[in-house]
Design brief:
elongated
């Protein structure tokens, strides 16, 4: 267990934090020949509850072929001015800045 910003318990399964405020992004490869679908990557982004009405603080976890590729946090996201794609981009960009 870990604690959210308000002191509530948030369970951890492996390295994935489980809570109600999760965006789960799944990337699948679909064979044009067999039509078989394989999940090749996932992302989970969750609100840590410490933001304001206009600025959100998020934590993210990226998985590549089921293995952790990266994790971190993105603070002060302008959630009333930007959309979900901007949040996904911001988390990816924050992670890749540390990778390059």
């Amino acid at each position: 267990m870990t604690k959210d910003a308000k002191g509530g318990d948030v369970p951890i399964v492996g390295s994935v934090i489980v809570c109600d405020l999760v965006l789960k992004i799944t990337i699948e490869l679909i064979s044009a020949i067999t039509n078989k679908t394989v999940t090749i990557a996932q992302a989970r982004i969750y609100n840590d509850g410490s933001g304001t009405k206009t600025k959100g603080n998020y934590k993210y976890l990226f998985l590549n072929k089921g293995k952790k590729w990266g994790e971190g946090e993105f603070k002060n996201f302008p959630r009333t001015k930007k959309n979900v794609w901007d949040l996904i981009y911001s988390c990816l960009n924050a992670h890749l800045k540390g990778e390059l």
